[in-house]
Amino acid sequence: MHICESIESLQKETESAGDGEKVRESAEIFQEWGCSESDVSKIFERRSSLRKMDIHNLRSKLDILSRLGINSADLVKMIHCRPRLLNCRINIDLNERLVYLEGLFGSKEVLVKAIVRNPSLLTYDFHNKVKPVIAMYESLGLSKNDLITVLLSRPTLIPRTNLNEEKIDYIRRTGVSECSKMYKHVVSIVAISRMETIHEKMMNMEKYGLSEDDYLGLIGRSPLVLTLSVDKVQRNMTYVLGTMKLPASVVVHNPFLIFFNLERVLKPRFQIACKIEDMGLAPQIKGPLLLRAMRMSDKRFTKAFISCHPEGVARELLTAYNDAKCVRRLAESSKKNLHTGFPF
After folding, report:
1. DSSP track, 237-262
2. By C-alpha distance, which of 217, 193, 208, 200 is closest to 244?
3. Does the pTM exceed 0.85?
4. Cis peptide before 310 (omega within 30 of 0)
5. CA dihedral defined by 81, 83, 88, 93, rounded to 10 degrees?
6. Under 8 Å CB-to-CB from 232, ≥6 apart: which residues?
């Protein structure tokens, strides 16, 4: 029994020594490549399997990144973003992929920037995913510059894209022309959104009297509306229609009403507008001026509607305004953000 325990102990020590040697070799390769000890520590912390990676395989992949012009700082960002990057077969279709991508992005510098933002450009299925998705966007009228913009701003565009006839019809019904600067954003956001999500958000706006065409027109004016949660839209719309007494059509032409923070912007400023009216002060915040007031910076709003009054009145209004901004949503501090997959 004693002999068996000794053998097991010796095996563990040998394995431990072997693992330690592999970790040291991997660390040395990263350091030779230009990484500092801090960089190596961050890389190993993010992807522990790189500690024991085959050194020849590791050196080969780092050589590929060197030829692209990627440095150690870039590598740390890339591993943090895609921990499995160096475990993937980035040499598959590499030359053809790089020629194609450099032609798409226009220069090696922009290509490197795109790869650092989305390292998976080196690992996506080149023939069955990358090229068909790019061709799909080009068929919808996006220019090379438009494609560069959306690929840099939405790094996961390629795997998320899913277009069908219904989505293409929605894009057409937004009323945004191919010449518009908004077109690329409308197309890309609709393309990466789930159909069930689009339907859910349409139905939510219908509860407030907006038709499908109204909502699509809203997307055409502000594509990011499609990324807002149903809960946020419900809360803002309920306040805008129920308390501010504005018609739903106003939101279509002023999307900021559902973007702005309800507790910190909309409520405090509307409460000050009501207080100014109750006190019979001027200028009163009504009609078009109310919408302008909502869009002002905090400093400008205070100067235009609070500081302009006599000292005593201004102090009372400022106190009311600051108190209103300190009110938080019930149980906001304990709210949990639960996401199921892609947010939109």
Report:
1. HHHHHHTS---HHHHHH-THHHHS-I
2. 208
3. no
4. no
5. 10
6. 258
Structure tokens at 306: 């609070």
Is residue 180 classed as helix, strand or coil in its secondary structure? coil
Based on its alpha-carbon atoms, the radius of gyration of the chain, rounded to whole angstroms, reads 28
Report residue 170 as tokens.
Answer: 């929605």
pLDDT, tens only, 15-55: 454 577 888 999 999 999 999 999 999 999 999 999 989 99
Residue type, 194: R
Residues 303-316 have pLDDT tens digits of 999 999 999 999 99
Is pLDDT at 207 greater than 70 in this prediction?
yes
d(CA 60, CA 29): 11
Rounded-to-integer distance, Cα 237 and Cα 207, Å: 10
Q: Which two tokens stand for residue 5?
A: 């325990």
How do residues 83-98 score in pLDDT, each as one tens digit? 999 999 998 899 999 9
